């Protein structure tokens, strides 16, 4: 029997086609909407980044968007002011090469280290550079700069340009008291020990309006420090790392000395130290011309080593008294009589596991570790931490412990 084939009627074909068309229309609408949204997002993104790229000289938000996280290349992004060195550098001769298992080439290379120096008995017993760095290359210090700010405050007090650490900050910055009388209770010591009670908000999220962003990327850091600071609670209640503190102290130095902080650093510290090379200090912007005092100090590793040696020798180096012995002791002591933290003093970290030792510390693992009991200074600078902070400290302790038993 022949197979019967049903032939669809023209009317049925039209109905089926109509159903399919109706089904396609919502899908097409969503596809068009999705495409339009994607194009709109692309236009907004390109426009936002284009604005950020063209506005980095005048907008904090633009810098946060375009430059994103801080990195060691920031020393070339921000404008900078030179810190001229002396004509002749102070002696820092090479000594017998030290065998230091705690700082192997393998460790230093895989941690992104760019320079590693060890000074023992005022002689360079280890000096290594990696990743294209050399002795003449300036390294950026991040918060190691804070230890320099502290030292300049000490020098200004020695010279009588600043009264004492007990002075209220409003003595030098009366604008703060005019905005909030409670600033009158905040002393220079409170700022130096990070126990002022000033609010400081930061977050790990990519949010461009935090205090961390404004104090790092601000195009007018004087204005930021004078207008964004807020009293959260009375001084001395707690320790909180706060980048407003060095900015305020930088303004105190500027007004008390009558010169830019870089110029004061050159004449009172860098030249007397006998630095080999000019340093630079990054500025917030060309129009403002204020040093990034929370970071932004750039110098050669051997000159950072000299800065560590100045503190190793209680404020004297190359036969010159640069800052008082009393200041060095107060700045680096594990003391909770005047502040709440034994691990931090005047912008110096204190190694509480090795009494008497202390260090300057910057983001991404910039270190100047000073071990008076070993008569040694260890300097490490790099592009990244590579290992946790505690791992570096353990390595520095091992090195200093080893050197302490050598003649």
Our estimate of the beta-strand percent is 5-15%
Largest sheet: 6 strands, antiparallel
First-residue to last-residue Cα separation: 114 Å
Q: Would you report the number of β strands?
A: 12
> Could you report the average pLDDT, rounded to the nearest whole number?
91
Oligomerization category of the chains in this entry:
single chain
Number of helices: 14
Shape: globular
| Order of helix and strand elements from N to C terminus | HHHEHEEEHHHHHHHEEHEEHEEEEH
Class from helix and strand fractions: alpha+beta
Estimated radius of gyration: 29 Å
Strand order in space, largest sheet = 3-2-12-11-10-9
Low-confidence stretches: 1-6
- Helix fraction? 40-55%
Can you tell me about this structure?
The chain is of the alpha+beta class. Helices cover 41% and strands 13% of the residues. It is built from 14 helices and twelve strands. The chain has helices at 10-55, 60-67, 74-77, 105-110, 144-158, 174-179, 188-192, 211-217, 221-227, 244-257, 261-273, 301-312, 325-332, 389-404; strands spanning 80-83, 113-120, 123-129, 139-140, 279-282, 297-299, 316-317, 320-321, 349-350, 358-362, 366-371, 376-382. The strands form three sheets. The protein has a six-stranded antiparallel β-sheet, with helices on both faces. Helix 1 crosses helix 2 (60-67) and helix 5 packs parallel to helix 10. The longest helix has 46 residues, at 10-55. The chain starts with 9 loop residues before the first helix and ends with a helix. Mean pLDDT is 91; it is low at 1-6.
């Amino acid at each position: 029997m022949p197979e019967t084939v049903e032939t669809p009627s023209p009317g049925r074909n039209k109905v089926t086609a109509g159903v399919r068309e109706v089904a396609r229309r919502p899908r097409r609408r969503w596809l068009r909407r999705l495409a339009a949204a994607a194009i709109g997002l692309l236009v907004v993104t390109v426009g936002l980044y284009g604005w950020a790229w063209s506005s980095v000289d005048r907008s904090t938000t633009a810098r946060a968007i375009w430059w994103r996280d801080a990195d060691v290349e920031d020393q070339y992004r921000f404008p900078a002011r030179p810190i001229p060195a002396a004509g002749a550098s102070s002696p820092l001769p090479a000594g017998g090469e030290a065998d230091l298992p705690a700082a192997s080439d393998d460790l230093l290379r895989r941690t992104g280290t760019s320079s590693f120096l060890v000074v023992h008995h005022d002689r360079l017993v280890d000096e290594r550079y990696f990743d294209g760095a050399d002795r003449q290359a300036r390294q950026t210090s991040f918060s190691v700069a804070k230890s320099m700010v502290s030292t300049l405050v000490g020098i200004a007090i020695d010279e009588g340009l600043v009264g004492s650490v007990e002075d209220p900050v409003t003595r030098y910055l009366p604008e703060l008291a005019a905005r909030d009388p409670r600033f009158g209770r905040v002393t220079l010591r409170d700022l130096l020990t990070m126990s002022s009670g000033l609010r400081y908000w930061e977050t790990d999220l990519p949010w461009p309006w935090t205090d961390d962003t404004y104090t790092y990327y601000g195009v007018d850091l004087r204005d930021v420090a004078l207008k964004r600071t807020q009293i959260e609670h009375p001084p001395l209640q707690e320790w909180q790392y706060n980048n407003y503190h060095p900015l305020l102290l930088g303004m105190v130095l500027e007004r008390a000395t009558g010169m830019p902080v870089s110029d004061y650093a050159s004449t009172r510290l860098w030249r007397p130290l006998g630095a080999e090379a000019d340093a630079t200090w990054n500025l917030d912007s060309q129009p403002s011309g204020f040093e990034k005092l929370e970071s932004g100090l750039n110098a050669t590793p051997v000159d950072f080593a000299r800065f560590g040696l100045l503190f190793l020798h209680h404020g004297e180096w190359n036969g010159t008294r640069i800052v008082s012995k009393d200041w060095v002791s107060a700045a680096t002591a594990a003391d909770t009589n005047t502040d709440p933290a034994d691990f931090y003093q005047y912008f110096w970290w204190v190694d509480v596991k090795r009494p008497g030792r202390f260090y300057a510390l910057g983001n991404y693992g910039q270190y100047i570790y000073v071990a008076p009991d070993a008569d040694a200074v260890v300097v490490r600078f790099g592009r990244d931490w590579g290992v946790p902070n505690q791992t570096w400290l353990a390595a520095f302790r091992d090195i200093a412990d080893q050197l302490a038993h050598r003649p």
